[in-house]
Amino acid sequence: MVAAAARSTSRGAREALTVTIGVAIWVTAIAAGAGDAAGRVEVDLGERVRFERSVPDDSVTVGERFTVTWRFDYPDTLDLLAPPALDAGDCRLLSLRWREERAPAGRAHRAADLVLIGLDLERALLPENHVDFLTPSGDTVRVFTGEAAVPVRRLASDDADLAPLKEQWEAPRSIVPWLLGAAAAIAIALAAWLLWKRRRRGADAAPEVQLPADFVALTELSRIERMGLVEAGELKRYYTLVVDAVRRYLEARYGVDAMDRTTHELVAVLGARGHHVDGLEALLGEADLVKFARFTPPRAAAEGAIGAAREIVVRTTPRETAPGGEADGTAAAAGGGA
User: Which of 47, 52, 27, 25 is CA-nearest to residue 142?
Assistant: First the structure.
């Protein structure tokens, strides 16, 4: 049985990009000779996104590699957002490779090959995951892949298949154990000496200089400004570089994972930690519109993105305090997110 469900919520014009339409796909095939792991499941979500999953036709042994393939057929106006991490359950994910496939005009085909190793004695089960698609309006279509189960076969069907063990062979007494013990002692002593030497060399080395996060961010923003991307009409690259500089600064400033989060997720996690950064959501939202919704802002607004990014960095840089207790006038003032 294949079921698909979708939901949509609106949170205002500025949060249009963070709306999520959840499309849940649960797949259950009943074993009838060939087994549920050998089939292929195809789901058509109103001629919008089609999902197909294929699993091995035969059972595998514990530790044997097998491949599960996901295929997505969708309009080329959608952008597939590859998930940063997947839940492999009791399996071990060895590799994940995305590839493009030929598609008719107006549509796109992408496939993901997941190479796994099953670690369970009964079955190799890949839990349900999800893949997101970004629409031109900034909404998110979420497709759930369902579980993929592959039966695991035993190496021996019953105890009768196991041959009895032969009696253990005993080696004659010799000096070999003594030689091996001496070699092991020498190896341990040598390893300890090398470790001591490396630590001593590391202690004598000069400490690595760590540049302040605000200095790095402001320097990068100045470099981007000199590139003349707005004048050249390369707005998507321009906004990408600007928001990446701000996200890297926020990672160093607040210790959060800012590069792999959506605008809504980043603002939410900063707010949960008590850091309300004024202007951040507006800047990232405008960049999302340019990058994903093909929005072209006025030139003055685009040039102002650099100023907005600098203001975020300056206002969230901690204020340095002089020995007398007064704030150093040369330091940047702490702002909304400090």
Answer: 25
Token duo for residue 81: 């957002």
Could you say which residues of the chain have pLDDT below 50? Answer: 1-44, 46, 321-338
What distance, in Å, lies between the first and last C-alpha atoms of the chain? Answer: 52
Whether residue 47 contacts residue 104, with contact meaning beta carbons closer than 8 Å, is answered with: no
Write the single-letter amino acid at 85: A
For tokens 């990068």, the residue is: 220
**Residue 160: predicted pLDDT:** 54
- Torsion of the alpha carbons at 333, 334, 337 and 338, rounded to the nearest 10: 160
Residues 6+ apart with CB under 8 A from 307: none
Q: Which residues pair with 152 in a beta bridge?
A: 60
52-100 pLDDT, tens digit each: 999 988 888 888 899 999 999 999 999 998 887 889 988 999 999 999 9
What is the number of helices (H) and of strands (E) in the chain? 6, 12
Strand partners, 71: 52, 111
Q: Quick: pLDDT tens for 313-323.
A: 999 988 764 44
Separation of alpha carbons 250 and 255, rounded Å: 7
Q: How many CA atoms lie within 13 A of 150 on its CB side?
A: 29
Tokens 């253990």 correspond to: 168
pTM of the shown model: 0.38
Residue environment code for 212-221, b if the CB has 16+ CB neighbours within 10 A, otherwise e: ebbebbbebb
